[in-house]
Automatic annotation (TrEMBL), chain A:
GO cellular component: cytosolic large ribosomal subunit
Name this polypeptide is given: Large ribosomal subunit protein bL19
Gene3D superfamilies xrefs: 2.30.30.790
Family: Belongs to the bacterial ribosomal protein bL19 family.
Encoding gene (name): rplS
InterPro entries found in the cross-reference section: Ribosomal_bL19, Ribosomal_bL19_CS, Ribosomal_bL19_sf, Translation_prot_SH3-like_sf
Keywords: Ribonucleoprotein, Ribosomal protein
SUPFAM superfamilies xref list: Translation proteins SH3-like domain
Cleaved signal peptide residues: none
GO biological process: translation
Name of one Pfam family that matches: Ribosomal_L19
Role of this protein: This protein is located at the 30S-50S ribosomal subunit interface and may play a role in the structure and function of the aminoacyl-tRNA binding site.
Molecular function as annotated in GO: structural constituent of ribosome
TrEMBL record, chain B:
Protein name per the record: Large ribosomal subunit protein uL3
A GO biological process held by the record: translation
Assembly and binders: Part of the 50S ribosomal subunit. Forms a cluster with proteins L14 and L19.
GO molecular function, one term: rRNA binding
Keywords: Ribonucleoprotein, Ribosomal protein, RNA-binding, rRNA-binding
Lineage: Bacteria, Candidatus Eiseniibacteriota
GO cellular component terms, semicolon-separated: cytosolic large ribosomal subunit
A Pfam short name: Ribosomal_L3
Function summary: One of the primary rRNA binding proteins, it binds directly near the 3'-end of the 23S rRNA, where it nucleates assembly of the 50S subunit.
Amino acid sequence: MGLIEKVEATQLKDGRPDLRPGDTVEVSVRVIEGDKERQQKFVGDIINVRGAGTRKTFTVRKISEGVGVERTFPLHGPSIAEIKVTKHSKVRRAKLFYLRRKTGKSARLTEQRTQ
Amino acid sequence: MIGLIGRKVGMTQLFDEKGDVLPVTVIQAGPCTVTEVRSADKNGYAAVQLGFGTNKEFRFTRPVLGQFKKRNLPPSRKLREFRTDGAPAEGGSAYEVGQSLTVALFEKGEHVDVRGVTKGRGFAGVVKRHKFAAGHASHGPTAGKQPGSIGASAYPSRVVKGKRLPGRMGGVNLTIKNLEVVAVDAEQHVMMVLGAIPGPPNGLVFVTKREG
């Protein structure tokens, strides 16, 4: 193991799930307001996972009051308290950017059934 | 100022408490052996000569090897002097030949200068070498990456001295000043500084403390 990998290994957070495009996730984000800290949930579908190690990020897309909202999180960032995967969907590509052009029914993903 | 000889390992990123990403360079610094102490009385200036790394004995010339033999030290691949004027050595005691200096010399939060040889870029054009703005890539016969006019005609009938033109770029000594030390790992002889430093991975660098 090279020195760089050793340094990066100390930055990796345990218990972060293996995320795949098409997963529906609940991301609990730490929000600091003044001297108080609270958690905010961001719920949506993962449309992009990129990078490796400490640089791994994922993009979550949701429709909020009719407006599409996307947020990219660093997987190992300290501002993320928890990531909960609630659904795996059947997808045929690595990047789901085509969802941006879809609205309503056609923007849905079909759930993957696992035994 | 006192410092260490080291090798650039490469760059990576760290998260700070706020969750922001910090770009850091990992440096393998030291351990360095004090191979010679220069004093104001004897040499007119105070300094220490530090040695870093090892090499096979036949790689050294006999005169150089003799210098190490005389001091009963294993031969170091790289030697460099660091001035120690006006600064007492660590713990108030003077430096001694044979003493080993490690990254423990630096502490988290302090600022250092890092010197190294920049990557050689060969014969570089004016856009890369002097940050000229390039012309438009499309829309007809525009300038592209050419330098454009390099002066007037009949007067002065020559190109002014210092005119920025294409030429050799890189491969020169460069010091990046005032870099913050983000982490020090004395066990692995590794330190991390905020930002980039000159040279390729595995390139030789000199890390020096800042005065005051």
